[in-house]
Amino acid sequence: MANTILVGAQWGDEGKGKIIDVLTEQADLVVRYAGGNNAGHTVIVKGQKFVLHLVPSGILRKGKLCVIGNGVVVDPVGLVTEIEGLRKFGVKVAANLAVSETAHVVMPYHRELDAQREVLKGKQKIGTTQRGIGPAYGDKAARVGLRMIDLIHPERFAEKLQARMQENNEVLKALGAKPLAYQQVLATYRAAGDFLAPHVKNTVVLLHEAQQAGKSLLFEGAQGTFLDLDHGTYPYVTSSNTTAGGACTGSGVPPHRMDRVVGVMKAYTTRVGEGPLPTENAEISDLLHGMGREFGATTGRPRRCGWFDSVAVRHATMVNGIDDLAVTNLDGLDTVETIKVAIGYRSGGKPYDYVPADVDELAACVPVYADFEGWLTPTSKARKWNDLPAKARDYLKALAELSGARLSIASVGPGREQTIML
Ligand code: IMP
Fold this sequence. Notes:
The protein has 13 helices and 20 strands. By secondary structure, it is α/β, with parallel strands linked by helices. The structure holds inosinic acid.
């Protein structure tokens, strides 16, 4: 398999974890390039459910090298817990996991600031995962962040931490929150640093050497196109470049080495947190929640649900250069009699065939829908294209045509075997 970037084509939670797991079979290395443990990638292997937050999903397959790239923000305590959890299930995590020495570290004051800022924002809150992601990337941009290379050098870390905690404790006090205890943070982070030290590497060189040796790389995107800091529904976004461009800056692999972009999308739309969602619909939300589906993998929050939005995915195809589409959760629509798909928006008499950059303008947009007849047949046992009901095939073909990319994968359930390759 050539070097492939996999991105979410909607607002995150598209089922990327499962598709990455399927594609990993043909890759040698799996690379995370953005986000942190705000992500939750669910993979089910032989009935066992794994939710991965920082470790690339490739860890679940033998012989794959997994890389947490420089563009990721790493909560070291969270990462230790995740590694220990995987080991408990007999998953090998050793030299098959490398963490970039220049990845920034998420600190307890980042999490506290994340929470405090959300409270301050009141009704304008973003609805973050409260994992400290925004403040950690903020420190990176302000050039005051601590990196993995600092974490594994105890003296340097102790010194830098003291300065950072002095400033951040003042900010926390000003916000009415409790300051954090330096010694306690130091001890916890030192322990995590010792545990993680064998994994911390110069991943830019490692990835370069892997390419020279003819290995294929799979870039595991986190979140989705419309949560991208630059291309999403700002300010209701995460703080990293989740789109395909982020794979280059977040790993150090140059653009001309990338061969293919796969966009993952649900057969409908979901979003967690605040911000506009043009096709949001109570009927489909109730149906999916009633089936026990669409609860956040990281926070457990019920996801907001809506009809498939082809305006949004077409926009995602443009921004990411999506070649191939993977459609997930088709089986979620098995009982719907009439399925709606947004084929355009209108606002104040003006038609839109793209997602307006201004959230207020987007919030005022009303979708223009096309109706599709439901197939009203269970699809979760389908394994080949022709196993699918004709109406489901027509629906999938229409989604791909409207989205402007090739349909390559259809997923009808969380298991590896519930995947139709086209
Ligand atoms: P943050 O990344 O925790 O700062 O959250 C910012 C926004 O991105 C919020 O609306 C979150 O719900 C959303 N978000 C962050 N990570 C994910 C994810 O992995 N899936 C879906 N939404 C996410």
